[in-house]
Amino acid sequence: EVDGEIMREKRENLKKQQEDEYEQSLQADLAKERARQEEQDANERLKQQRLQQQEESKARLPEEPSDTEKNITRLKIRLPNDEGVLMRRFRINDTLQRGLSERIVKLFETLRRCVGNQCAQRVDAMEHNSFPLILIVIRSHGSLELVNVIEGKNTPSEVLLNLIQSHESFEQQRLCEVDGEIMREKRENLKKQQEDEYEQSLQADLAKERARQEEQNANEQESKARLPEEPSDTEKHITRLKIRLPNDEGILMRRFRINDTLQVCFLIYICRIEVTPVDEVITSSSHIVEVNFDSSINT
User: Fold this and answer.
1) The pLDDT of residue 228 is above 70
2) Within a domain: 32
3) Domain limit, last residue, from 11, 33, 60
4) 10 Å Cβ neighbour count for 15?
5) 11-66: pLDDT as tens digits
6) Domain count, the chain
């Protein structure tokens, strides 16, 4: 019984621990879902802002002069990475900013779509003499994040230092994500191990209970086989015993011969034969002896 109580306490503690870990995992999943929804809403807002800014950029772009207009020139702009060639007519008083406005609009569009509106605004606010730029972008929690901007006017030493610092920042974040993934795997493995141990413990307890029940049934069958037949009411030299069971389970009534041993009385108690309700009035001419069994008796 003590071992059974210890096993039950272990199962209860294990179950409570699993419920706590499940609640923590559920809260973490809900937080992730909220973050995902917030990110989705932010992307939708950025999309709307991008469309609005694209319309504003198109509004700022002057119309291309006609082929018959005087004082115009035609520029061929070769795009990087073999993306193609832009051909457009320009007036002689157009600035370089106007000539590259289409390309800049596409650049900002790409930055807003891939990195975010904050990155595009940061690049847009930079002075023209800062170009060309090196944008250091890393992936953080499933999205891109701008961590550093290296301007074209920086010296080689400054560029190298910024690259080293950006790499160290990326490594720190990567290690944090790896540690988080390892912790999640450990929690999942621990939960699975606890579930397996709980299932094994439950099956072991069920097997013990079945074995105990089978042993009890076998003992009862053996006791019934060893129990002598009850003498008839007309037989001489008999007595009647009233055996009161513990915990108000009832009363056992039986006739005994005067040479029956006390072992027969215990066999009667073990087999629980002919249980008479407690409040039943017993009337008989035979001599009645009352025997009380304590609940601590080990059958």
Assistant:
1) yes
2) yes
3) 60
4) 13
5) 888 888 888 888 888 888 888 888 888 888 888 887 887 788 777 767 777 788 88
6) 2
pLDDT in tens, 266-298: 777 777 655 444 444 444 444 445 555 554 444
User: Is 23 part of a structural domain of the chain?
Assistant: yes
User: Using omega within 30 degrees of 0 as the cis cutoff, is the peptide bond preceding 246 cis?
Assistant: no
Q: How far apart are CA 53 and CA 199, in angstroms?
A: 60
The letter for the amino acid at 226 is R
What is the domain range of residue 19? 1-60
Higher pLDDT, 81 or 219: 219
The answer to whether residues 78 and 100 touch, using CB atoms and an 8 Å cutoff, is no
| 2, part of any domain | yes
Average pLDDT, the chain: 77
Task: Decide if 192 is inside a domain.
Answer: no
Contact between residue 9 and residue 1 where contact means Cβ atoms under 8 Å apart: no
